[in-house]
Amino acid sequence: xxxxxxxxxxxxxxxxxxxxxxxxxxxxxxxxxxxxxxxxxxxxxxxxxxxxxxxxxxxxxxxxxxxxxxxxxxxxxxxxxxxxxxxxxxxxxxxxxxxxxxxxxxxxxxxxxxxxxxxxxxxxxxxxxxxxxxxxxxxxxxxxxxxxxxxxxxxxxxxxxxxxxxxxxxxxxxxxxxxxxxxxxxxx
Length: 188
Prior knowledge:
The protein is mostly helical and 188 residues long. Helices cover 52% and strands 9% of the residues. The model is unreliable at 1-20 and 60-68 (pLDDT under 50).
């Protein structure tokens, strides 16, 4: 294997802030790999990444006792958005999450039963519902989201600022392609 494939000059090589971690991932990309080779590697990696993210543990405090369901990754994404945006309408959250109103309403109902959010009626339009973080739950929400995103933060920490920007740009392009491409001929 040549130096490029081994990644000996890569940002993680010999980094003291990554003890016990491999210096280069199994699917490292050499600068001269073709688009087809990179696509093949990503086709193998993305399902593993998705499984790993779904397996992230959710703190015991998030157990929804009434219906014996627990909160999972979809709830984390919904909660993260409310934390980022502040009080928002269900419609805005559904649009930003790329989900139907019914799905988002159910997700936030679970979060309300768990005590993480509160729903109120918009005083300017009584037909609209406003979702907000529940008072006093900001620390618990932060702990959950920080724990769930820790592997991502560690992986991004192994990249230079330029590499992080390229990675985020590539993921944004992928998300946009997935949002506009028909699924089984049924439309986006």
